[in-house]
Amino acid sequence: MERDYIISWKVAGISLGLLLILATALVKPLGVSTQFVVSDAAIAHKVAPAFAESNTYLAKYGEKESWGVGYGWMLVLGMFVGGGVAAAIFRKRQPEQDKGSLPPMWQGRFGDSMSKRYGAAFLGGVALLFGARLAGGCTSGHMISGIPQLAISSFIFAATAFGAAILAAKFIYRSGAEN
């Protein structure tokens, strides 16, 4: 089955690599999850400074960090906007499903509840963000920025993330599983 893509994966990969080089050279390596901690720390320093300074994790960021519209929040906002734009552009090009329907594999295992699908996606995002902070960075920070810099922790994160994802998918979509 030949798919009609706007750009090939090779062009997209090279473009992402060049964007990473440009972002690292001009600002800093890409990463998103830290922005949430920076914002928490800035708010905590304004609302409860004694608590913020006594908390080792929050004290590290302090008032010197900006929680306003800066590089980090622009990246977070850009992810939402870019995801929405891409979904709108490619909605009709989805290979296995019609507009608004669920993937057959999901329906076979969990039914056709859209709210269940959104709930699972939200909980997965929360778990990913928690794990990202526990690992000292998110997938963009570790895999897109850390691996090109040959950071050992990024290789460990990537292997662990992919391994956990494979195991979770095998468990969730195991054959003969009850609905």
Describe this structure as you would to a colleague.
This protein has 179 residues and is mainly alpha-helical. It folds into three domains: 30 residues; 62 residues, no CATH class; 78 residues, no CATH class. The protein has nine helices and no strands. The model has no long low-confidence stretch (mean pLDDT 79).
Question: Which key terms come to mind for this protein?
Answer:
179 residues, mainly alpha, 3 domains, 67% helix, 0% strand
What's the gist of this structure?
The chain is built from 9 helices and no strands. With 179 residues, it is mainly α. The longest helix is centred in the last third of the chain and has 21 residues, at 114-134.
Reconstruct the topology from this structure.
Elements: H1 9-26, H2 33-47, H3 49-54, H4 56-59, H5 71-90, H6 104-110, H7 114-134, H8 139-146, H9 152-172
Helix pairs in contact: 8-9
In round numbers, the mean pLDDT is 79
Structural class: mainly alpha
How many β-strand stretches?
0
Main sheet specs: none
Radius of gyration: 20 Å
| Share in helix | 55-70%
- How big a fraction of the residues is strand? under 5%
The number of helical segments is: 9
H/E element order: HHHHHHHHH
Please give the domain count: 3
- The 3D shape can be described as globular
**Low-pLDDT ranges:** none
Cα-to-Cα separation, first versus last residue: 31 Å
